[in-house]
Write a structure and sequence with these properties.
- β2 and β3 form a beta hairpin.
- The protein is globular and about 75 Å long.
- It has 23 helices and 29 strands.
- The chain is an alpha/beta fold.
C-alpha cells in the first residue's frame, strides 16, 4: 500500500463529513454563472489585492488601482481592511461591474482581532486545545462583525530554529502537537460542519509548505529536506488541518526539491489535493508568484502559468494571473480548463459563505457591540493565564503581597508591546501593562523604565520604525532613545534600592518577531542585559518577566535570576494575567513547545532529533570522537515540554494493559498515577512519548504521541490513561509507506521530554 492509498482512505471519510460537502445546487449554480463569464472575468476572480494603504510585502496598493480593477471585473477579493462601511462601498462597486460577482474579504487575524489573544507560540504552551479553539472562535466572531469572512490563519509550520522570527506565529517544534493545534484552530474559525454561519470565517492554513524549515532561520530562505523527512517531521499539521475541513491554504515563499512551493505540483496537487483529498482553494502568499522570477525559474508569464498548473487558484498581489494568463491561453501554456478549475474553487468558497444569496451578509454593521467586550476579554485573560511558562523559581514566587516591589524595565509599562507580531487591533494601546497589573496587587509598586531596548540608538530606531520609514519617510517619529542609557539605569538603581524584590520586565519588542525579523543572536538585547547586570549587583532578589516571541539564550539569566517567568506576548489582558501568576492567584501551567538553547550555535535545536552512529548524552561533558560540542552540552537549557508550577507533581510507574500488541489492529492502555504534592490546586500536562528501538529506517530518539492537561486539587492523585494503537506507532518508511513495524517500543510518560518513566511494548505480526 502506498502513501496515496493510505492517506486517501483517511481523508475521504473525514472530509465527506466536513468542508467538502457542497450546498444543494452549488454545482449547477456555478455552472450557470461560469457559462456567462468571459475568460477575462474568470481570471479576475483569481486576483487578490491588499486594501489601499495596507503594507503587504514590498507593495502598497493605491485606491484608484483597486477601483479600476473592480470596474473591469478583474478582482476576486480584497484583504487588509476591517472597516464595514468601506467594504460595503467596494462590494457595491464589484456588484455593479464586470460579472457582478461579490468579493471575498480577508484579513491577517492571527491571534485575535480587536481583542488580542496571546501569540500562537504562547497559546501552544497552554497545551489546551479547547482553549485554543475558543480563542479562534472569539476571533471569528469579532472579524465577521467587522465584515471579514476569510482569515489567514492558522499558521501551522513546524519550526525548529529560534532564529526565525515567524516561529512566534506557530505551534512549535513538534508535528503531533502542531496537528492537534491546527485542528482546534480550524474548528474555532469554521465550526464543526460544512455550513459557514454569520459569525464564522473561512480558515486559510499557512504556509504550505515547510516554511518553518528555512535554512539558518533566515526568512524567505531555501528549504533542503527529503520526502521521508517532511512526511514524518513536518507535514502532519497541514494534513490534520485538511482533515478538519480547512477551506483554503496559502502557499509559502520557500522552495522544495528545487521548485518554489507556489509552483510545486508535488506539494499542491499530488499531496494536498490527491492524497489528502483537499477540495478547497489555494492562495499564494503576498507577491509569491512574482518572487518566483528571482528563483531563476522564468519570467512573470512563465511562473504564473506554472503556478496555475501546479494548483494555485488565487494570486495575492503579484498581478501575474491578470497580466499574463490570457496570453498564456493563446500560446497553449495553460488551457481555459485550468482557469475554469481555479475560478470554480473561488466561486465555491463564495457560495459556501452565502455571498451569492446576500453579498452584504457580513457587512450589515449590526454586531459592533460584539467587539472588544468583557466576554472577549475574559477569553483573552484565560488564554493569557495558561500561556505563561515558569522557567525557574528558587522559592521567591508566588509573591506574598506584602513586599515592596520595584517594577523595572522597558517592557514594564508598554501596553502596545504586549500584542506581539501580526496584531491588527486598534486597541493595542489599551492592553493591560505589566505595571498596571502588578499595581492591582501592590498599589505602592515603584516603576522605572530602566533601559533602552538596544544600546545603539540608530539600530533601535531602525528596528522600531523601519517599516514606517520605508513607506512613509516623512512621518514624524519619536526618538528611539528619549533618555540616555546611563540616566535610565541610574533611575532604576535608585528604585531598586528601596525595594524588597525587583520585577525586571525585559525581552523583545514586537518588531523583533514575526515576518522579516530573523535574528542571528537570540539573546536579550544588550541594553537590557546591561540593566539586568546592574540590578544583580544590588543584591536584591530579582524576578525576570520575559516578553518574547521566540526562545532566547538565557544561560546567564538562569544562573543569576531568582525566578524567570516567560510570558511571551499575551495580548489584551497581558498585565492582569502576568500579575495574577506572580502573586499566586493563578498557578502557572504552561509547558514549552520549543527548546530553549544554551547558545545560538546549537540552532536548529529540537527534542525529536535522530541518533548518530556516535551518540552522546544531551547533558554529558565534551568527549573526543563523539557527536558533541567542545564548549556547550548538546541538550537545551529548557527542554520541550518543560514548565514549572507552584506545586510539584510526582509520577508513578508506567503501566501497560498488555506488553504485546498486533501491528495491524488492537490497542493497549497506558496509565500512570500522578500526585499533586503541593498545597495549591493546579494543572499538569502529562505527556506520552514513544521510541522505536529498531526500525527499517531511522526514527527520532523520542516522539510525542499523546498528552492530557489535567486539573488537580491540592494533594490529589489521579490515574491518567492513554490508549495506544498501531496508528500511534506508525511512520513513513523509506518507500513512503505508512507502516507500524514489529519490534520493541519504549513507551514513556512524564512532565517533559527529558524526565520520563517508561515500559516496553512489543509489536507483533
Amino acid at each position: 500500500m502506498n502513501l496515496r492509498t493510505i492517506v486517501i482512505s483517511v481523508a475521504a471519510s473525514t472530509l465527506a463529513l466536513s468542508s467538502c460537502t457542497p450546498k444543494s445546487g452549488m454545482d449547477s449554480y456555478i455552472d450557470s454563472l461560469m457559462g456567462k463569464m468571459t475568460l477575462e472575468q474568470k481570471i479576475g476572480q483569481l486576483n487578490l489585492h491588499s486594501a489601499p494603504g495596507f503594507v503587504s510585502a514590498m507593495k502598497v496598493t493605491e485606491e484608484d488601482g483597486n477601483v479600476k480593477l473592480l470596474r473591469e471585473g478583474r478582482l476576486g477579493g480584497i484583504y487588509g481592511n476591517g472597516d464595514v462601511q468601506y467594504l460595503r462601498q467596494i462590494q457595491q462597486i464589484a456588484l455593479d461591474s464586470g460579472a457582478g460577482i461579490p468579493l471575498i474579504f480577508g484579513m491577517d487575524v492571527i491571534h485575535g482581532h480587536e481583542t488580542v489573544m496571546p501569540i500562537p507560540l504562547a497559546l501552544s504552551t497552554s497545551w489546551n486545545m479547547e482553549l485554543i479553539e475558543k480563542t479562534a472562535r472569539t476571533a471569528a466572531k469579532e472579524a465577521t462583525a467587522c465584515g471579514i469572512n476569510w482569515v489567514f490563519s492558522p499558521m501551522v509550520d513546524v519550526a525548529r530554529d529560534a532564529r526565525w522570527g515567524r516561529i512566534a506565529e506557530g505551534g512549535g517544534e513538534d508535528p503531533y502537537l502542531g496537528g492537534e493545534i491546527a485542528k482546534a484552530m480550524v474548528r474555532g474559525y469554521q465550526g464543526d460542519d460544512a455550513e459557514i454561519s454569520d459569525d464564522e470565517v473561512l480558515a486559510c492554513v499557512k504556509h504550505y509548505a515547510l516554511y518553518g524549515a528555512a535554512e539558518a532561520g533566515r526568512d524567505y530562505n531555501t528549504v533542503n529536506l527529503g520526502r521521508q523527512e517532511i512526511l514524518n517531521g513536518y507535514m502532519r499539521p497541514y494534513h490534520e488541518a485538511a482533515k478538519a475541513g480547512a477551506a483554503s491554504y496559502m502557499s509559502s515563499f520557500n522552495e522544495f526539491e528545487g521548485v518554489p512551493a507556489t509552483m510545486n505540483s508535488y506539494l499542491m496537487d499530488e499531496l494536498l489535493r490527491r492524497s489528502w483529498g483537499f477540495n478547497g482553494f489555494i492562495v499564494t502568499d503576498a507577491t509569491a508568484i512574482a518572487e518566483e522570477v528571482n528563483h531563476g525559474i522564468g519570467d512573470l508569464q512563465e511562473v504564473s502559468a506554472r503556478s496555475l498548473k501546479a494548483g494555485v487558484d488565487m494570486d495575492m498581489n503579484s498581478d501575474g494571473f491578470i497580466e499574463t494568463l490570457v496570453q498564456s491561453v493563446k500560446e497553449g501554456r495553460v488551457s481555459e480548463k485550468d482557469i475554469d478549475r481555479a475560478c470554480r474553487k473561488i466561486l465555491e468558497a463564495k457560495y459556501r459563505l452565502g455571498l451569492f444569496e446576500d453579498p452584504f451578509k457580513y457587512l450589515k454593521g449590526e454586531r459592533a457591540n460584539e467587539i472588544y467586550t468583557p466576554e472577549t476579554k475574559a477569553v483573552a485573560y484565560e488564554a493569557a493565564c495558561e500561556s505563561q511558562v515558569l522557567l525557574k523559581n528558587d522559592g521567591i514566587l508566588p509573591l506574598k503581597g506584602n513586599e515592596r516591589v520595584a517594577v523595572i524595565g522597558p517592557l514594564a509599562d508598554n501596553p502596545s508591546e504586549m500584542t506581539g507580531c501580526w496584531s491588527m487591533s486598534s486597541k493595542a494601546g489599551d492592553c493591560a501593562s505589566i505595571l498596571s497589573g502588578i499595581r492591582r496587587h501592590c498599589p505602592g509598586a515603584t516603576y522605572s523604565q530602566g533601559s533602552n531596548i538596544f544600546l545603539d540608538e540608530q539600530f533601535e530606531d531602525k528596528v522600531k520604525y523601519g517599516l514606517i520609514r520605508m513607506f512613509s519617510p516623512s512621518t514624524p517619529l519619536p526618538k528611539a532613545h528619549a533618555l540616555p542609557q546611563s540616566a535610565l539605569v541610574a533611575d532604576a538603581l535608585s528604585k531598586a534600592r528601596g525595594a524588597d524584590v525587583i520585577v525586571a520586565c525585559v525581552g523583545e519588542i514586537t518588531a523583533l518577531n514575526g515576518e522579516g525579523a530573523s535574528r542571528a543572536d537570540i539573546c536579550i538585547p544588550d541594553a537590557q542585559k546591561e540593566l539586568l547586570r546592574s540590578l544583580k549587583a544590588t543584591g536584591k532578589p530579582i524576578v525576570l518577566v520575559l516578553t518574547t516571541g521566540r526562545p532566547l539564550t538565557l544561560g546567564w539569566e538562569n544562573d543569576n535570576m531568582n525566578a524567570i517567568l516567560c510570558t511571551w506576548n499575551l495580548g489584551t489582558e497581558a498585565g492582569n494575567a502576568i500579575a495574577d501568576v506572580l502573586y499566586g492567584k493563578v498557578n502557572p501551567s504552561g509547558k514549552l513547545t520549543t527548546s530553549f538553547p544554551y547558545h545560538v550555535g546549537q540552532e536548529p535545536l529540537y527534542y525529536n532529533h535522530k541518533n548518530t552512529g556516535r551518540p552522546h548524552p544531551d547533558y554529558a561533558p565534551y568527549q573526543k570522537f563523539v557527536s558533541c560540542y567542545i564548549d556547550v552540552v548538546n541538550g537545551p537549557l529548557y527542554p520541550f515540554g518543560y514548565g514549572l508550577s507552584y506545586n510539584s507533581y510526582k509520577y508513578g510507574e508506567v503501566k501497560l494493559s498488555s506488553t504485546e500488541m498486533p501491528s495491524t489492529d488492537g490497542s493497549v492502555q497506558v496509565s500512570v498515577d500522578v500526585n499533586n504534592e503541593g498545597k495549591m490546586d493546579g494543572k499538569e500536562t502529562v505527556q506520552l512519548y514513544i521510541h522505536a528501538k529498531y526500525s527499517s529506517s531511522t526514527r527520532p530518539v523520542k516522539e510525542l504521541k499523546a498528552f492530557r492537561k489535567v486539573d488537580f486539587k491540592a494533594g490529589e492523585t489521579k490515574t491518567v490513561t492513554f490508549t495506544l494503537t498501531p496508528e500511534d506507532l506508525s511512520y513513513y518508511d523509506h518507500d513512503l509507506r505508512w507502516v507500524c513495524e514489529k519490534g520493541e517500543y519504549d513507551i514513556m510518560i512524564g512532565p517533559n521530554c527529558n524526565d520520563l518513566k517508561g515500559s516496553t511494548l512489543k509489536v507483533v505480526r
